[in-house]
Specification:
The chain is α+β, with helices and mostly antiparallel strands and 150 residues long. The chain has four helices and seven strands. A seven-stranded mixed β-sheet has the order 1-2-3-4-5-7-6.
C-alpha cells in the first residue's frame, strides 16, 4: 500500500478505471464508473473524478462533488461514487481514497463530507461506518445519508 497515489481521471487511465470489477453482489450498490465519467463531463466545474493507483495498476476510483452553492447541503461536499477492484479490496484502498477526498474537501473550506448508500448484504454500509461516517438521515428513497466531520 506504500505505492498508493491518486491521479486525476485522464485518457491515460480511463480505460482501466472503466473496467474495474467488483465482488459478486456489489454491483447493485454502485453505478458503473462509466456513469461517473459522463457526470464529470456534464458537471466539470464541481465534479472531482480520481483513480487510485497502486504502483502501475489502477485499483480504485472515487468521484466527489464540491459545490458550495448546491441547494441541498448533502450535495455540497460529497462522494458520488467509490469503487475498489475486487482483488484489491481489504487493503485500505477505499479508506485511502476517502481520506484523500476528505483532505481535498478540507482544503476547499468544507467542514464535512457526505455520502449516500443503500443498506443490504454486500453493500458499503459497514465500510463507511468503520471509517468514521455517521448516519444523519435518509433520502426519500430510503438510502442512508452519512457524514464525516472534517
Amino acid at each position: 500500500m506504500a505505492d498508493l497515489k491518486l491521479e486525476a481521471l485522464s485518457a491515460k487511465n480511463i480505460v482501466a478505471a472503466n473496467t474495474l470489477t467488483l465482488k459478486p453482489g456489489q454491483e447493485q450498490f454502485v453505478a458503473p464508473v462509466s456513469h461517473s465519467i459522463a457526470e464529470a463531463y456534464v458537471n466539470p466545474s464541481t465534479s472531482w473524478p480520481r483513480v487510485v493507483v497502486d504502483g502501475d495498476d489502477v485499483v480504485g476510483f472515487i468521484m466527489g462533488n464540491f459545490d458550495p452553492d448546491a441547494h441541498d447541503d448533502e450535495f455540497r461536499s460529497c462522494i458520488w461514487r467509490i469503487n475498489v477492484s475486487a482483488e484489491a479490496q481489504g487493503r485500505g484502498i477505499g479508506k485511502f481514497a476517502v481520506w484523500a477526498l476528505a483532505e481535498e474537501a478540507r482544503s476547499r473550506g468544507f467542514e464535512r463530507v457526505t455520502v449516500m448508500w443503500e443498506s443490504g448484504e454486500d453493500g458499503p454500509e459497514e465500510f463507511f461506518l468503520r471509517i468514521g461516517f455517521t448516519i444523519i438521515g435518509q433520502t426519500q428513497y430510503g438510502e442512508n445519508i452519512g457524514a464525516l466531520q472534517l
